[in-house]
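Researcher: Go.
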Amino acid sequence: MPKRGGVLRRREATSLDQGDLEVVDILSSLGVDHKIAKVITFLAQVEEGKSTDIERGCRLRQPEVSVATKSLRELGWIQTEERKKGGKGRPVHYYKLQMPLPKIVEIIERNKREEIQGELAKIEKLKGIVT
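Model: Structure:
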């Protein structure tokens, strides 16, 4: 997600661009599910998005968006709001980030640091055994 003057771009719901896809790739390389990374990156670009906006913007199918948004709700990273349309039919789900993307990155960083420390502790233990 390219920065302009230190502020993330905000735009209407469209699709992920090359800069956004770079963020998705980095998040994925850090262990974030690729579809979840797409949804996070998309929602960081808009104030809120409907399920259909996310589907189009991320090029994901409806079931993939549902699974990703469920995981993100469980992590506490997004908020979901149901809004009734006029007349009959199902309500429309709107999603927005619960916290800014930099805060999510901090959480990922903290988790990775803990994971690395755990692995280093195993290596130290192994060194003590084999030497």
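Model: The longest helix spans residues 101-130.
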